[in-house]
Design goal:
Layout: H1 21-34, H2 38-52, E1 58-62, H3 68-76, E2 83-88, H4 91-103, E3 110-115, E4 126-132, H5 140-152, E5 154-167, H6 171-187, H7 192-202, E6 209-210, H8 211-221, E7 224-232, E8 235-241
Parallel strand pairs: 1-2, 1-4, 2-3, 4-5, 5-6
Antiparallel strand pairs: 5-8, 7-8
Length: 244
Protein backbone atom coordinates (compact mmCIF):
# COMPACT_ATOMS: atom_id res chain seq x y z
CA UNK A 1 0.00 0.00 0.00
CA UNK A 2 1.65 3.24 -1.19
CA UNK A 3 1.69 5.94 1.50
CA UNK A 4 -0.24 9.15 0.91
CA UNK A 5 2.25 12.03 0.74
CA UNK A 6 0.41 14.16 -1.84
CA UNK A 7 0.28 17.22 0.42
CA UNK A 8 3.45 16.53 2.44
CA UNK A 9 5.49 19.23 0.69
CA UNK A 10 4.56 22.90 0.56
CA UNK A 11 2.72 23.72 -2.66
CA UNK A 12 2.73 27.35 -3.76
CA UNK A 13 -0.24 26.92 -6.10
CA UNK A 14 -2.75 24.42 -4.72
CA UNK A 15 -5.16 23.04 -7.29
CA UNK A 16 -8.63 21.71 -6.56
CA UNK A 17 -8.65 18.08 -5.44
CA UNK A 18 -9.25 15.55 -8.23
CA UNK A 19 -9.29 11.76 -8.30
CA UNK A 20 -6.48 11.43 -10.80
CA UNK A 21 -3.71 8.84 -11.20
CA UNK A 22 -1.70 10.36 -8.36
CA UNK A 23 -4.60 10.10 -5.90
CA UNK A 24 -5.54 6.64 -7.18
CA UNK A 25 -2.04 5.33 -6.45
CA UNK A 26 -2.32 6.21 -2.74
CA UNK A 27 -6.10 6.14 -2.27
CA UNK A 28 -6.20 2.99 -0.14
CA UNK A 29 -3.86 4.60 2.39
CA UNK A 30 -5.59 7.97 2.09
CA UNK A 31 -9.06 6.72 3.02
CA UNK A 32 -7.70 4.50 5.79
CA UNK A 33 -6.04 7.49 7.43
CA UNK A 34 -8.63 10.14 6.51
CA UNK A 35 -12.06 8.53 6.90
CA UNK A 36 -12.82 7.22 10.39
CA UNK A 37 -14.74 3.94 10.26
CA UNK A 38 -14.16 3.48 6.52
CA UNK A 39 -13.28 -0.23 6.72
CA UNK A 40 -16.32 -0.98 8.87
CA UNK A 41 -18.70 0.96 6.62
CA UNK A 42 -17.41 -0.80 3.50
CA UNK A 43 -17.47 -4.28 5.05
CA UNK A 44 -20.99 -3.80 6.40
CA UNK A 45 -22.16 -2.53 3.02
CA UNK A 46 -21.31 -5.97 1.74
CA UNK A 47 -23.19 -7.65 4.59
CA UNK A 48 -26.26 -5.47 3.94
CA UNK A 49 -26.06 -6.24 0.22
CA UNK A 50 -26.05 -9.95 0.98
CA UNK A 51 -29.15 -9.54 3.11
CA UNK A 52 -31.22 -7.39 0.74
CA UNK A 53 -30.13 -8.43 -2.76
CA UNK A 54 -33.01 -9.81 -4.80
CA UNK A 55 -32.58 -12.66 -7.32
CA UNK A 56 -31.80 -11.55 -10.86
CA UNK A 57 -31.37 -7.90 -9.87
CA UNK A 58 -28.67 -5.27 -10.28
CA UNK A 59 -26.52 -3.99 -7.43
CA UNK A 60 -24.77 -0.64 -7.86
CA UNK A 61 -21.68 0.86 -6.26
CA UNK A 62 -21.88 4.53 -7.23
CA UNK A 63 -18.59 6.37 -6.96
CA UNK A 64 -16.88 3.01 -6.61
CA UNK A 65 -13.28 4.35 -6.57
CA UNK A 66 -11.03 1.27 -6.11
CA UNK A 67 -14.05 -1.05 -5.92
CA UNK A 68 -13.88 -1.79 -2.19
CA UNK A 69 -17.67 -1.74 -1.72
CA UNK A 70 -18.15 -3.62 -4.99
CA UNK A 71 -15.92 -6.43 -3.76
CA UNK A 72 -17.57 -6.42 -0.33
CA UNK A 73 -20.95 -6.88 -2.04
CA UNK A 74 -19.58 -9.67 -4.18
CA UNK A 75 -18.17 -11.48 -1.16
CA UNK A 76 -21.52 -11.64 0.63
CA UNK A 77 -23.81 -12.19 -2.35
CA UNK A 78 -25.46 -15.61 -2.57
CA UNK A 79 -27.34 -15.02 -5.83
CA UNK A 80 -25.11 -15.78 -8.80
CA UNK A 81 -27.74 -14.42 -11.22
CA UNK A 82 -27.22 -10.83 -9.98
CA UNK A 83 -24.97 -8.25 -11.60
CA UNK A 84 -22.87 -5.79 -9.59
CA UNK A 85 -22.07 -2.54 -11.39
CA UNK A 86 -19.38 -0.16 -10.14
CA UNK A 87 -19.47 3.35 -11.60
CA UNK A 88 -16.89 6.11 -11.21
CA UNK A 89 -15.97 9.14 -13.31
CA UNK A 90 -12.22 8.57 -12.82
CA UNK A 91 -10.71 6.26 -15.41
CA UNK A 92 -7.69 5.72 -13.16
CA UNK A 93 -9.99 4.49 -10.37
CA UNK A 94 -11.92 2.23 -12.74
CA UNK A 95 -8.72 0.68 -14.07
CA UNK A 96 -7.51 -0.01 -10.51
CA UNK A 97 -10.91 -1.44 -9.52
CA UNK A 98 -10.81 -3.84 -12.46
CA UNK A 99 -7.38 -5.04 -11.38
CA UNK A 100 -8.56 -5.53 -7.80
CA UNK A 101 -11.52 -7.54 -9.06
CA UNK A 102 -9.29 -9.75 -11.19
CA UNK A 103 -7.07 -10.41 -8.17
CA UNK A 104 -10.05 -11.45 -6.04
CA UNK A 105 -10.70 -15.16 -5.48
CA UNK A 106 -14.47 -14.64 -5.15
CA UNK A 107 -16.67 -16.24 -7.78
CA UNK A 108 -20.37 -15.92 -8.46
CA UNK A 109 -22.22 -12.80 -9.57
CA UNK A 110 -21.02 -10.88 -12.59
CA UNK A 111 -19.12 -7.64 -11.86
CA UNK A 112 -18.93 -4.76 -14.31
CA UNK A 113 -17.13 -1.42 -14.01
CA UNK A 114 -18.16 1.69 -15.94
CA UNK A 115 -16.33 4.99 -16.24
CA UNK A 116 -19.11 7.57 -16.25
CA UNK A 117 -20.73 10.41 -14.37
CA UNK A 118 -23.25 8.83 -11.99
CA UNK A 119 -25.59 11.77 -12.60
CA UNK A 120 -26.02 10.58 -16.19
CA UNK A 121 -26.00 6.79 -15.85
CA UNK A 122 -29.22 4.80 -15.93
CA UNK A 123 -30.09 3.00 -12.71
CA UNK A 124 -32.42 0.10 -13.43
CA UNK A 125 -33.76 -3.07 -11.84
CA UNK A 126 -31.72 -2.37 -8.69
CA UNK A 127 -32.27 -4.11 -5.38
CA UNK A 128 -29.23 -2.56 -3.66
CA UNK A 129 -27.53 0.75 -4.38
CA UNK A 130 -24.50 1.90 -2.38
CA UNK A 131 -23.27 5.46 -2.62
CA UNK A 132 -20.49 5.63 -0.05
CA UNK A 133 -18.68 8.95 0.50
CA UNK A 134 -19.67 10.11 -2.98
CA UNK A 135 -22.72 12.36 -2.73
CA UNK A 136 -20.57 14.93 -0.91
CA UNK A 137 -18.59 15.40 -4.15
CA UNK A 138 -21.71 15.96 -6.26
CA UNK A 139 -22.72 19.64 -6.66
CA UNK A 140 -25.43 20.33 -4.04
CA UNK A 141 -27.90 21.47 -6.68
CA UNK A 142 -27.71 18.04 -8.37
CA UNK A 143 -28.15 15.86 -5.27
CA UNK A 144 -31.94 15.81 -5.06
CA UNK A 145 -32.27 14.70 -8.68
CA UNK A 146 -29.64 11.96 -8.27
CA UNK A 147 -31.32 10.42 -5.22
CA UNK A 148 -34.69 10.62 -6.96
CA UNK A 149 -33.25 8.84 -10.01
CA UNK A 150 -31.80 6.12 -7.82
CA UNK A 151 -35.18 5.63 -6.17
CA UNK A 152 -36.93 5.41 -9.54
CA UNK A 153 -34.49 2.75 -10.74
CA UNK A 154 -34.94 0.48 -7.74
CA UNK A 155 -37.18 -2.52 -7.30
CA UNK A 156 -39.85 -2.40 -4.59
CA UNK A 157 -38.19 -3.54 -1.37
CA UNK A 158 -34.79 -2.36 -2.56
CA UNK A 159 -32.37 -0.53 -0.28
CA UNK A 160 -30.05 2.43 -0.57
CA UNK A 161 -26.82 2.45 1.45
CA UNK A 162 -25.49 5.97 1.95
CA UNK A 163 -22.29 7.02 3.74
CA UNK A 164 -21.24 10.65 4.08
CA UNK A 165 -19.19 13.18 5.97
CA UNK A 166 -21.68 15.29 7.91
CA UNK A 167 -21.76 18.62 9.66
CA UNK A 168 -23.81 19.46 12.74
CA UNK A 169 -26.43 22.20 12.68
CA UNK A 170 -25.25 23.18 16.18
CA UNK A 171 -22.07 25.30 15.73
CA UNK A 172 -20.56 24.14 19.02
CA UNK A 173 -21.15 20.47 18.26
CA UNK A 174 -19.79 20.96 14.75
CA UNK A 175 -16.64 22.62 16.08
CA UNK A 176 -16.11 19.82 18.62
CA UNK A 177 -16.48 17.10 16.00
CA UNK A 178 -14.17 18.89 13.58
CA UNK A 179 -11.54 19.17 16.29
CA UNK A 180 -11.79 15.46 17.06
CA UNK A 181 -11.57 14.64 13.36
CA UNK A 182 -8.35 16.65 13.06
CA UNK A 183 -6.97 14.71 16.04
CA UNK A 184 -7.85 11.50 14.17
CA UNK A 185 -5.81 12.63 11.16
CA UNK A 186 -2.88 13.68 13.33
CA UNK A 187 -2.96 10.32 15.10
CA UNK A 188 -2.71 8.67 11.68
CA UNK A 189 0.49 10.52 10.86
CA UNK A 190 -0.70 13.54 8.86
CA UNK A 191 1.25 16.73 9.52
CA UNK A 192 -0.31 20.15 10.06
CA UNK A 193 0.86 21.12 6.57
CA UNK A 194 -0.79 18.08 5.00
CA UNK A 195 -4.03 18.69 6.86
CA UNK A 196 -4.11 22.37 5.93
CA UNK A 197 -3.24 21.91 2.26
CA UNK A 198 -5.69 19.08 1.73
CA UNK A 199 -8.47 21.08 3.38
CA UNK A 200 -7.76 23.96 0.98
CA UNK A 201 -7.71 21.62 -2.03
CA UNK A 202 -11.06 20.12 -1.00
CA UNK A 203 -12.78 23.46 -0.43
CA UNK A 204 -15.85 23.70 -2.69
CA UNK A 205 -15.07 20.17 -3.95
CA UNK A 206 -16.26 18.19 -0.93
CA UNK A 207 -19.36 19.95 0.42
CA UNK A 208 -20.86 18.12 3.44
CA UNK A 209 -24.44 18.48 4.66
CA UNK A 210 -26.27 17.93 7.92
CA UNK A 211 -27.97 14.67 8.79
CA UNK A 212 -31.30 16.52 8.63
CA UNK A 213 -30.64 17.52 5.03
CA UNK A 214 -29.91 13.90 4.09
CA UNK A 215 -33.03 12.65 5.88
CA UNK A 216 -35.22 15.23 4.15
CA UNK A 217 -33.83 14.36 0.72
CA UNK A 218 -34.29 10.62 1.21
CA UNK A 219 -37.80 11.07 2.55
CA UNK A 220 -38.96 13.41 -0.20
CA UNK A 221 -37.65 10.93 -2.79
CA UNK A 222 -39.94 8.25 -1.33
CA UNK A 223 -37.60 6.22 0.86
CA UNK A 224 -38.91 4.91 4.17
CA UNK A 225 -37.41 3.23 7.26
CA UNK A 226 -34.36 5.49 7.07
CA UNK A 227 -31.90 4.31 9.72
CA UNK A 228 -28.44 5.50 10.71
CA UNK A 229 -26.65 2.19 11.28
CA UNK A 230 -23.11 3.49 11.81
CA UNK A 231 -21.28 6.62 12.85
CA UNK A 232 -17.66 7.36 13.63
CA UNK A 233 -16.90 10.99 14.47
CA UNK A 234 -18.38 13.14 11.68
CA UNK A 235 -18.93 10.30 9.20
CA UNK A 236 -22.27 8.50 9.13
CA UNK A 237 -23.92 5.64 7.23
CA UNK A 238 -27.63 5.09 6.66
CA UNK A 239 -29.87 2.53 5.05
CA UNK A 240 -33.14 3.56 3.39
CA UNK A 241 -35.83 1.30 1.90
CA UNK A 242 -38.11 1.59 -1.10
CA UNK A 243 -41.63 0.44 -0.13
CA UNK A 244 -42.86 -2.89 -1.44
Amino acid sequence: MARDRIFADLQSDLEAFVFDERVTSVFADMVRRSVPGYATAVAMSGVLAGRYAQPGSHLYDLGCSLGATTLAMHKHLDQSDCTIIGIDNSQAMIDAAKQACLASDDTGAEVRFVCADIRNELIEDASVVAINYTLQFIPPEDRDALIARIYSGMRPGGVLILSEKVIDSDPQASERMTSLYLDFKRANGYSELEISQKRTALENVLVPETEEQHMQRLGQSGFIDITRWFQCLNFSSWIACKPN
